[in-house]
Amino acid sequence: xxxxxxxxxxxxxxxxxxxxxxxxxxxxxxxxxxxxxxxxxxxxxxxxxxxxxxxxxxxxxxxxxxxxxxxxxxxxxxxxxxxxxxxxxxxxxxxxxxxxxxxxxxxxxxxxxxxxxxxxxxxxxxxxxxxxxxxxxxxxxxxxxxxxxxxxxxxxxxxxxxxxxxxxxxxxxxxxxxxxxxxxxxxxxxxxxxxxxxxxxxxxxxxxxxxxxxxxxxxxxxxxxxxxxxxxxxxxxxxxxxxxxxxxxxxxxxxxxxxxxxxxxxxxxxxxxxxxxxxxxxxxxxxxxxxxxxxxxxxxxxxxxxxxxxxxxxxxxxxxxxxxxxxxxxxxxxxxxxxxxxxxxxxxxxxxxxxxxxxxx
Length: 361
Hints:
By secondary structure, the chain is mainly α. The chain has 3 domains: about 1-55, 2-Layer Sandwich (Double Stranded RNA Binding Domain), CATH 3.30.160.390; about 65-145; about 175-325, Orthogonal Bundle (hpI Integrase, Chain A). Helix content is about 50%, strand content about 5%. It has helices at about 35-50, 55-60, 65-75, 85-100, 110-125, 130-145, 175-185, 190-200, 205-210, 245-255, 275-285, 295-305, 310-315, 320-325, 335-350, and strands spanning about 1-5, 10, 15, 20, 25-30, 215-220, 225, 235-240. A 3-stranded antiparallel sheet has the order 1-2-5, covered by helices on one side. Strand 3 (about 15) and strand 4 form a beta hairpin. The longest helix is centred in the middle third of the chain and has 20 residues, at about 130-145. The protein is elongated, with a radius of gyration of 31 Å. The N and C termini lie far apart (about 90 Å).
């Protein structure tokens, strides 16, 4: 027993492991009696004689990293490698869902049920796809935890049955595009309206447009080279600019400051946030079911209707996986029907039927 000048009395145990001396406190008096402290000391001795170090084990448990500490290391070391939009999404998921639910838990104490409960909680809010994304981020962090030797296995792997995700197939018709153009012309924020116009004219992703810099554009050659740091495929992507897109950018450049770096400057020196403007514009155009990303799908559908091949469409959209572009293959029905009619005409010896695309009213 150690007796301090303050009168505090503690029981401790002296032992050595691999030549290293230990003197951990195992109990305090009067919370523990002498008999109880001796019984605890005997239990420790059994562990020590079997080759274990109970003090080191208890310290390892006490200092084991929490999910919050894992998140801090992830943000510091891994997040800077991601695109700005992806960084914002990850930080949002951490702050809103992961840290409030799991932040104080030890990483080693996480169980599949914890991950499943988090997924179910988000799903109940109606954000079914977002629930999948949050669980995916937890899985990524835990995989890093395995690499950093925090834990031996990733308990998020196979822990959750993901919610079904149906790829959207919403494309704007020519009438809807005209309504959208009219709403954009009446928009109070001209920069945000021009950003939406450029999205529709180029089929680019929102982050690519909103974070675009003038240095990426060669207006004389009519091309746009997106930087690898801003593209989803993480490599430079050069696309030609159509005459309307080039006209829009040329006019914007003439009216912008020569020292301005961003095409659509934001309040914090970063890219422009157009979410609020888009909500008001789509309502004014009567397009309540249209998402901002649907402009990209509409760009692809126009290419299909003009006879462009899937590889060409994939090159313009910056797809690295042909399967991503294949989602537009169902739009080729009319071109395929026209080709089939030509074959039928040759075989039957008559004129080919004229294929007229059916439009929804």
